[in-house]
Structures
1.
Amino acid sequence: MKTLYKLVLLVILPFSLKATSLKEIMQITVKNNLNIKSMNYNIASKKETLKSVTNTLNPTINLGASYNKLGLNIRSSQVGATLSGYIKFGVDLYDGGKNNSIKRQKAFEVESIKLGKKASIKEILLQVVQLFYGIKMVDENIKAYKDKSKTLSAQYKREQQKYNLKMITVDEVLKLQSEYESNQYIIEDLKYQRDELYQNLTLITGKKIANIDNSKLPNIQNLRYKPSENIEVLKSNLKAINEDINQISAIKKPKIKLEDTINVYHYNDYDKAVLKDLPNQQNQLMLSFSLNLYDSSTSSKEQSAMLAKLVKKEQLNYAKSKEKIAFNLARKKLLTQKAKIDSAKSALEMANSVYDIILTKYQNGIVDNISYLDALSKKTTNQALYNQALNNYEIAKANYYFSSGVDYQKVLKMKF
């Protein structure tokens, strides 16, 4: 039975512990993330709106009917009851450029929301990277503190034996036990943090992620800044406001409209001897021209749109400056994190050396357990700091990539 159980474990374990790479998680996120899906629907909606204004002549077909009944004193030259129906075809031969402007505005809105989607995907993928390396950091810290627990447990057993032989006092044993329990508390807290990070990763990706591998982003070379999709969104919004201004200006321009109406009539309750030539059908063609000489609101609307344009221009200039600063800071952050790795590695090596020396002295009774516990704690703390530096360096890489304005699809095509 035990042999069968082991065989089952050997078959199931590789599948249950299959680690997911960072690249796979990012690809899954782009495909399954609910916010990205909602943006796809929004784009589809805007495209349909654009289709609705594609024909700038604005053709219309209207169908209608009416019934008219006269009562009391009806003259012989009047029809008592008239049933009429009509179908009207209309087209704007010239509307001052309004419909063309609306079409361009809707096209800019579609462009803007597409660019906004790309910018949002980059932000979501950066969150994925942060969660991925956050999990790695916590995992490595759990391992470091578990190693500390094993060391403490072994030392506790040795000290317990010494205490049983009356070689040491009880306080020396209790100090080790207290440190062990405190260490276990830290491990449990780290486990909760890891579970929380996995839950957040699952929420963002739209798929259950239970295990991750040791993926690392490729090193960055010759990366240059270019405006991001957020800048392009602001530019599209500025163009859309220009079309608002054009639409307001179109109010002052002449309008030419062509309409053709076919009417059908049916009459009752009238003197057929007097009214012999009532028409059963009529076709009416009308070409109309209009010009708005004055209205009280156009000037204010135009001024409002111009001020809105100035607002967008200032927002665009601010965003450009902010992005360039963010890119430069991201580059400095990357260099800083690299320097931190070197410092943390050096500190860890020294802490390990000090621990080895103190351990030998402790085992030979030269130093007390307080010095030993302090050296062990510093060793574990420096290991955690080194883990943090390594993983923060990977996050800094991702932040540097995305702050440069690079397309997220280019990042996904990289080998890592």
2.
Amino acid sequence: MKSRIFVLAVMAGGLLLGSPAAYGQPVTKLTANLSPATIDAIWCSALFLEEAYYWDEGSQDALHYEDMAYDLGERLDEVMREAGLPTAEGEEIWAIFDEAAADFALDDETSYLVELDACEEAYQADKLQLR
């Protein structure tokens, strides 16, 4: 039993090291033409925006997460345009990912915080790939 838990923990850790986000990330046909790195970055942006809502509006923490979400979001909007996605599809992707981030934060706060931390570390180290 202990070895099974250890294996699961190692697999989970490997997923997080390989990409900053994975567990609560939604799957949609709308992202079919986007790279896995782009999809992971969209997820990180959605997690940042969700975390901004947790903090008091206008607080340093809220502004910190909003800034990361909007900076990343603007760059990702350009990547989606370059991939040929119509604006309406891009907006639908954002809505799906934002809703999934909110659900993830409520359903599994521990995993949400782990993914949020991984995304924030990758963002601050400029290691989030957008393409």
3.
Amino acid sequence: MQNAMRTVIFSHNYPPKRNPRSFRIRNLEQAGFFGNEYIIIPNSVLAFSQFKKLHNDLHQKKREITKPNFLSYLKNGIRYNRISNFLSKCILPDRFIFLQLYYLILYIVKYRKSDDLIYTVSNPFSSHLIGIVLKFLFKHEWHADIGDVYYSELTSNWSIHEALEKSVVLYTDRLILNSESIKNHFIQAYSVVTEKIHVVSNGVRIKFNTIIRIPSSVLRFSYIGNTYHPIRPGIQELEFILKYFEAHPEQSMILQLFGKQNQAIMRLAAKNPLLIKIISCNSDHELEEAYANTDILINIANVNFPGLPSKLEEYVASRIPIINFYQTKDNASLLFLNSKNLVLLNIDINCIDEDILNKTTRFISTCFN
């Protein structure tokens, strides 16, 4: 992003937080995407001081504004209060809206420059309300960075969510997305002008060329990422892997799940403690170890959801064979992975039969012969 003005970035997720949006902003920052002068305003407790200066030289000036500690208690109170949860689902965009209001007022009162370029990042989606206010009340140029669909029949049936997403997509001056699948979804859903859409991938932060693979007599299947209802439940995929294990008792095998898993998967793992291991992955070192101890990568399908799983860029960069499960022919993972030169097996999770088991056997045999 080349501009002479200062860029002000409102992002809830920023290092040391560990999540895809945090890594994305860091990667864009390091690539010089925000220009020579910018301020990052993260809605997370990174320091208790009002300002933390991170970098300042002839080519780049950056400040990081953090919130007072009391706001973290406010957020937690909103999070666990049933009434507030109800309001956030049917009236408010999400439970972070009060933090967005705080930062909007803070910025307007103390730090605003008339020619600032405003860059808002979701999640949470309510961060884009800052952009809407600053665009229409103060005529700022506004760019919205959206990494996932906000409104979906799977996750919400409230019209306010759809209306907010539509407003952000149509009114932002520039729409920055992380995948072609999200771009195609917004064009189809809201007839957004394609000229203002800019696709920038999340990028990969770890260096796979320095990772030394660790050999093992056990064939290690790994899923690296989180599972959750209703978008990415994962139970069908795990049950298929267990069937494959059962069909090949001559080979020692294990399924490793790196990340936070939903309750149904945790129960399945508890029933099969020798076959399924749930492992935390809270640092780059642990992530590198996960890939070093993997023979086959598993991608769990999104259920009729246009977002691209964030780990797939890493999967591709690892060059490890991938078994990709999908729900529909227009699944984002199919479009993305099929465009790469990979050792890849795609499996329709709705069409599991003996032939698919045999196909999987042939694929794995080919990978290691």
